[in-house]
Amino acid sequence: MLSVVVCSRSQALFEAFLKKTETTIGCTYEVIRIDNRENSYSISGAYNSGAALAKFSYICFVHEDVAFKTAGWGKKLLDHFNAEPGAGLIGIAGAVYKSKIPSGW
What we know:
alpha/beta; 3 helices
């Protein structure tokens, strides 16, 4: 079971995120939207507010413009935590395009 915390600034992006998450996550989940259209929170403030509302032990902090493409990604994430009980954090970064110019990833 996975709590997904989203700092949201766009209704359209959030709705697209919800639709994509629903079709790809592959496990029991909740989505906690922290509405930041008024720019009331820093990103860490928004995520901390969302974490305080989470029902489940595992929390995924994600931007609303992320499009998960892997089927069952939530189940895979939980399986990894269960296989590695000492793991406290998993970070994932990615992009559609990586230029040849040196950059962060």
